[in-house]
């Protein structure tokens, strides 16, 4: 038997290569604000990517120290984050984002502004050592009942979504941060959240091509370095498997028809659309076999045992012949290729725009009033009608206008209400104060619409701030559509109300 200089046999060398490739395709998460020993050890064994979430971030300085800790173990590590700006923020998870999200940018419809916002976001990520962003969302929000996309989408018009997706990709990658355009082949026409169950899109192939795929074509043309698959069933493309596990979707459509050559990343494998139907081990094997290159896991499962289980499942699948070794090796090489791109990407050269997020949020406001509106001079009562947050957004990020109105009109009071009777309860708490009612996707929540009915019947001078998709008809003495619930969206609305 031929031996190597280290004394390791060829078979053991092949085994080590296989194990390294299995680790290389994983993008796990962890808990805490410093890297645990197990994660550093896995980086030494071949792990090439790490996913960060809000739980890992306390400040820009701490995040920079964390990414430096990871790079001390592996200098080409891909450090990924789910930083869309707007409602989905990890950098500013405890304060709310300083950038409006996609829906606000789509409402302005200025592609240069979108590019500038993405470039500034990319600069901040790069300064903290993050080099892969699981963004932008290229989903066309064609279904108003969509519970998980909504303001994360640039809008309902495919052409608008396409041009802003391309601008976002260009801006983000100008800062040396790889874009990961999601959720292929499009999560917009669903009424189910794939965090909880398997959504299904029953559109025909022609509709899918014209609507869902248009933004992905634009992203590919703009050079997106990564694409994230969706855990959705699209029978017109594959009647049997969700997109993440579908060779017709990933290999034939994305690689073949659309000509995409970059990294394909799965959405979180612990999401119930996959975990509850296939399990994460089986799902990961099927995803790689179908054409995915990287397995995202760590939003919910964030420990060494998860990494070990997925590594072993991939190795076992190769040894049993279920997963071709060449397919796993190809996937691992694409991960390394992206790592090389991030290492070689030049730093952003354009001017820092610290105010660009607020500028964009102000431009995104849409004001509707039935009569001339007088700005408030006395502190109001802010009634926040609060729906259950979807998992992508999370419930730890503050939203609304109360904090900003308190800054502008000291003495402002606020309360949060939900469910039947929310309107009456808010009226009782408000007393004689002017009411500012804050809603989020009024059109999706009958109880919220009923609360506004009760408020406006008794207090027609109520100001309404819609911080979701402004699908319901505007009403109130003044209706402000912010097109998102980021901190800067709340500030922009508060400035109007207080006459700043």
Helix/sheet category: alpha/beta
Mean pLDDT: 93
| Estimated helix fraction | 40-55%
Biggest sheet statistics: 6 strands, parallel
Q: How do the strands line up in the largest sheet? A: 2-3-4-5-6-7
Q: Which stretches are poorly predicted, pLDDT < 50 over at least 5 residues?
A: 1-12
What is the 3D shape?
Answer: globular
Integer-rounded radius of gyration: 24 Å
End-to-end separation: 80 Å
- Assess the beta-strand content as a share of residues: 5-15%
Number of helices: 18
Number of strands: 14
**Which assembly state applies to the chains in this document?**
single chain
Helices, strands, pairings?
Elements: H1 10-24, E1 26-27, H2 37-45, E2 49-52, H3 60-73, E3 78-81, H4 102-108, H5 111-127, E4 132-133, H6 158-174, E5 178-184, H7 205-212, H8 214-221, E6 226-229, H9 247-257, E7 263-265, H10 272-275, H11 280-290, E8 295-296, H12 304-320, H13 325-344, H14 356-364, E9 366-369, E10 381-385, H15 402-408, E11 413-417, H16 422-430, E12 435-439, H17 446-458, E13 463-466, E14 478-481, H18 487-498
Parallel strand pairs: 1-8, 2-3, 3-4, 4-5, 5-6, 6-7, 10-11, 10-12, 12-13, 13-14
Antiparallel strand pairs: 9-14
Helix pairs in contact: 1-12, 1-13, 4-14, 5-6, 6-8, 11-12, 14-18, 15-18, 16-17
Key features of this structure:
500 residues, alpha/beta, six-stranded parallel β-sheet, six-stranded mixed β-sheet, disordered N terminus
